[in-house]
Write a structure and sequence with these properties.
Low-confidence stretches of chain A: none
Order of helices and strands of chain A: EEEEEEEEEEE
Structural class of chain B: mainly beta
Order of helices and strands of chain B: EEEEEEEEEEE
Low-confidence stretches of chain B: none
Number of helices of chain B: 0
Shape of chain B: globular
Mean pLDDT of chain A: 92
Helix content of chain A: under 10%
Largest interface: A-B, 27 and 27 residues
Number of strands of chain B: 11
Structural class of chain A: mainly beta
Radius of gyration of chain A: 13 Å
Distance between the termini of chain A: 36 Å
Oligomer: heterodimer
Shape of chain A: globular
Strand content of chain B: over 45%
Largest sheet of chain A: 7 strands, mixed
Largest sheet of chain B: 6 strands, mixed
Chain lengths: 115, 112
């Protein structure tokens, strides 16, 4: 069964350091999403890509977060500098473009702890 | 903006039915979803319902949608200990790029 791959699985970093997460969506999925899930809450969208273009990054803290999907396939989410409040699970998901009834397929996530 | 609300916690005995409830505010929602999240894992899509339906059944899962009241429920028949997890409802709106808006999750605990 096709999966969304994410790495690393866990990341511990000191505040003010830079950290990056990687996501490889299911082959053929044009839409890619990064969500942040704070412990005890539901996921919240950070950024949505359609192929290599950003569709929605209105909730992305652009002073410290950046995301790219240069070739329209895999994607990287970066935080620089990391803050204590960034500790969360970062989930990547992908879906077939414009097909709402499939929902998304989520990766297993990267759990970030900022110390 | 969109808002999705769920109760925080539900406890049932093994073999009983579980009903997890969700309310949403966006009348433009086209699809509504239920996801399951086990500890430390990503989200697994359980089932979904199109907004012009009022019921969908899939094995032990029954989804009921009351579009007038914007109320969604997930019934799990013959609940097992392996069903213990956090359940999230979510809505999508094609006018918002099919972005999913999630509720805060309901933690289901199944007692043997």
């Amino acid at each position: 069964e096709a999966e969304v791959a994410q790495s690393p699985r866990y990341k511990i970093t000191e505040k003010s350091q830079a950290v990056a997460f990687w996501c490889d969506p299911i082959s053929g999925h044009a839409t890619l999403y990064w969500y942040r899930q704070i412990l005890g809450q539901g996921p919240e969208l950070l950024v949505q890509f359609q192929d290599e273009s950003v569709v929605d990054d209105s909730q992305l803290p652009k002073d410290r977060f950046s995301a790219e999907r240069l070739k329209g396939v895999d994607s990287t989410l970066k935080i620089q500098p990391a803050e204590l409040g960034d500790s969360a699970m970062y989930l990547c998901a992908s879906s077939l473009s414009g097909v709402g009834n499939y929902g998304y397929t989520f990766g297993s996530g990267t759990r970030l702890t900022v110390v | 903006g969109e808002d999705v609300e769920q109760s925080l916690f539900l406890s049932v005995r093994e073999g009983d039915s579980s009903v997890i409830n969700c309310t949403y505010t966006d009348s433009s929602s086209t699809y509504l979803y239920w996801y399951k999240q086990e500890p430390g894992a990503g989200l697994q899509l359980l089932t979904y319902i199109f907004s012009n339906m009022d019921m969908k059944q899939d094995q032990r899962l029954t989804v009921l949608l009351n579009k007038k009241d914007k109320h969604l429920s997930l019934r799990i028949a013959d609940t097992q200990t392996g069903d213990s997890a956090i359940y999230f409802c979510a809505e999508s709106n094609p006018d918002a790029g099919n972005m999913l808006t999630f509720g805060g999750g309901t933690r289901l605990m199944v007692k043997p």
